[in-house]
Amino acid sequence: MFTGIIECTGKILAVNANGTNKTFTITAPIVHELKIDQSVSHNGVCLTVESIKNDEYTVTAIDETLKKTNLGNWKTGDEINLERCMLMNGRLDGHIVQGHVDTTAACIDKKSVSGSWEFTFKFDESFAALVIEKGSISVNGTSLTVFNVTREAFTVAIIPYTYEHTNIKSVEPGSTVNIEFDIIGKYLARMAGLK
Q1: How far is CA 1 from CA 112, 121, 145, 153, 175, in A?
Q2: What is the DSSP-derived secondary structure letter of residue 174?
Q3: Which of the 8 DSSP states describes residue 164?
Q4: 141-163: per-residue pLDDT in tens?
Q5: Which domains are seen in the chain, by residue range?
Q6: DSSP letters along 92-154, please?
Q7: Do residues 85 and 40 make contact, with C-beta atoms less than 8 angstroms apart?
C-alpha cells in the first residue's frame, strides 16, 4: 500500500528481456534502504525488489503488467517515480494507492500557469465513472487532484515542488502515463453494478 507521495526518482540503468517478462536495473537515492522482497512503487506500479548490489537494484515486470502500464516503453536512462510502501504508524499525506495500475492515459495538453503547470490526460471512456471532479487519482504513482473532468479526460495542476521532484516534468503531449483510479470509487462502482 502506498500514498502517492513520491520519495525520489530513480534512473533505469538496464532493461533485459526474459521470455515475455522484462527485468529492470535501477539506481536511486533510496537503494541503501531497500531490502530483498520489498515492495516499491515504480511509476505507480508495485514491483518486488529481487536483488541489490552497490547502488542499484533489480525488479521484474511480467507480461500482464507490461501490457497494462507504460513499463513496456521504459528504456535505459529513463527517470521513474519511486515510493516505498507506507508505514502503518505514519500519516497518509496523499490517498490510498495500491500500486495496481488500472490503465494508461495519454497527455493531450501541458501548459505553464503562473509558476505552476496544468496537464490534461485522455483515458478510455469505459473508466469515466471512476473519475470525479476534485477526486484523487494516481498518475505515474503521484497522488493528484483532478478537475475539468469529462467522460474521457481530466486535468491536474502541478505545484513547482512536485514538478521538480517527480518525472512529471518529462511528460509532454503524446506521453503515456500510468493511471490508478481511487480504490474507494472502484469499490462503489462495483457495488452499484452488482445491484
Answers
A1: 32, 25, 19, 26, 26
A2: T
A3: H
A4: 999 999 999 999 999 999 999 99
A5: 8-84 (2.40.30.20), 103-194 (2.40.30.20)
A6: --S--B-S---EEEEEEEEEEETTEEEEEEE--GGGGGG--TT-EEEETTEEEEEES--SSEE
A7: yes
